[in-house]
Structure formats: structure tokens, C-alpha cells
Specification:
Blueprint (H helix, E strand, L loop, with lengths): L3 E4 L5 H10 L1 E4 L9 H7 L5 E4 L7 H6 L5 E4 L9 H6 L3 E3 L6 H16 L2 H9 L20 E5 L3 H12 L3 E5 L5 H7 L2 E2 L2 H7 L2 E4 L13 H6 L5 E4 L8 H9 L5 E4 L19 E3 L8 H19 L11
Parallel strand pairs: 1-2, 1-3, 3-4, 4-5, 6-7, 6-9, 7-8, 9-10, 10-11, 11-12
Bound molecules: (2R)-2,3-dihydroxypropanoic acid.
Length: 321
Amino acid sequence: MKRKIYVTRKIPASIYDQLVQHLDVKMWEEEDIPVPREVLLKEIKDVDGLFCTITETIDEKMISHAENLKIISNMAVGFNHIDVKFANKKGIVVTNTPGVLTETTADLTFALLMATARRVVEASNYLRNGEWKSWSPMQLIGKDIYGATIGIIGMGRIGQALARRAKGFGMKILYYNRSRKLEIEKELGAEYCDLDTLLETSDYVSILIPYSPGVKYLIGNKELQRMKKTAILINTARGGIIDEQALYNALKNKEIWAAGLDVFEKEPIDLDSPLLTLPNVVTLPHIGSASEATRIKMAEITADNLIQFLEGGDPLTPVII
Ligand code: DGY
């Protein structure tokens, strides 16, 4: 008999077809609306496996509702929305999708950095709003990337991929990480430093650490005050790493120059958030890994983990905490 799984979001047809060859699959069919929590609390009750994404909170209560669950297969590399410790305690394996989204997320991070530095969104709106009356020497001037210093907080896979891009653009690279990465220092001339030094000396600060309660508001008022008044802050990791109220104040009071944000503490961000009123912020709806090829690869690994594990094999990419 096939094992039962629940898929919380509509996934590419090819991946769905692959899943149904091996497993008894039920899927939430709405394209753009996540499965409501009350529905998932019922659906999780008797399934053997769960295919989920970052839009579902798989906390202790949710896991406790599951009577047969053996695997939570997460279509994301980040797993802060899942209580992995509690799942493991219940004997449930959690998997994620490391590796496949590295380059795509680094691309988006660099795109956001460039868009923020050169005011791309603001300039496009300026033209469309009919404000472009003539070329003018100091119109929409931004910041240079070539020759500037980038400080990367988190030198994991995506941090390293970003550092390679920065090197290609002639940037000086600083980084702050739990441990030193000597091979990256050698390859790219990156310099390891403490967080305060990174904040004080970087023209661009890019956050690329995984979220855990220990890094909540790692960047708050005190840290923003340390940054250069000309600096740009880029966040493509998780929103909760920045204190958004402190960021708003710093941007409004011109204590830093600009920010590029792909992630927010609450997603979707409320449209009345004061951050959205500022011209010096570029905001994106959490699209770091959103390329066609990468999203398909992420869905494939998520499906492969379920199939392999529920058919008696080892999970391909288990989360180890
Ligand atoms: C992740 O994988 O953690 C991203 O935030 C979503 O792709």
C-alpha cells in the first residue's frame, strides 16, 4: 500500500506526477493562497509525510496533531518555520533543499544590491510618472559598486557565492561568520573581522545567515548607528534578523543611505508599513530563489526526500541540528 502524504502548495505538474507514482498524494490546490492552518491541522493527522514550504508554521502544536508522520520535507533551505527539535524528539525526520538555490539567491542578492545602489526602481518610476524633464548632472545619483567594500554577514554557501560576484565587480570583501573560511580568504582575498568592524567599515552590508532566535534583531538601533551614513544594507536571509522599526528610523533620519529587502519579519509585509513609504528602500516579495530552474530543483529534492525515505531509504538531505 502506498504511504500517504500531504502537499501544502500547488507544485509543478511533473513533480506531482512523480509523487503519485510512489505515494498516495493529497495536495492543497489553490495557486496563491497558502493552506489555512485549521485545514493543515486536520490533514496532517494521518499522513506519513508532509511536503511543506516556508508559508506553513510547523510548530509543536502542528506536529502533535500528526499521528503517523515520519518525515517533514521542506521545500526551502531555511527551516526556522519548523520546530526541528520537537519533530526529531518525536522520531520525525526533517529535510530541506541545500545547495540548489545557492547561485540563484546570490544572483538576486547582487541584483538587489545594484538596484538599491543605483536607485533603479526609483528611476524607473521617475520616468513613468512623467518627472523626467531633461538629463541633469546630479539627477538620481547613486553609489558606486566597483572599488567599494562589501561586508558579508554569514559566509555559508550563499555568502561565498555572493563574495565571488563581489570579487568580479572589483569590491573589497569583509566577512563575519561563526568560523573563519580560510579557503575563501585565499581564493577571494576576503578578510575576516568582527561584526562591529564590518558594520563600521563596509559600504554594503549583506545579511546571509540562517535565522534562529539567537539572531533575532542582530541588526538593531546600535548596529545601524555603527554603519556609515553612506552605507547600504541588504537582507535576503530572514526578516527577523533586522529590527524593522530601528531600520525605518535609521533610513528616515539618513543614518544609513539605503536598504534593499527581500524578506520581512511579517510576510507579506503590511502595506501600511512605514518602510514602504521611504524612497531609499527597495522591497521585493521574498524571491531570492525564484528562478524557474531552481524552484523546479527545489521541488524535485523535496519530492525525492519523501519518496526515498517513505520507501525505506535514507533521506537525501536531512536537517541536522
Ligand atoms: C529558503 O529556501 O529558505 C528561501 O527563503 C525560500 O526559497
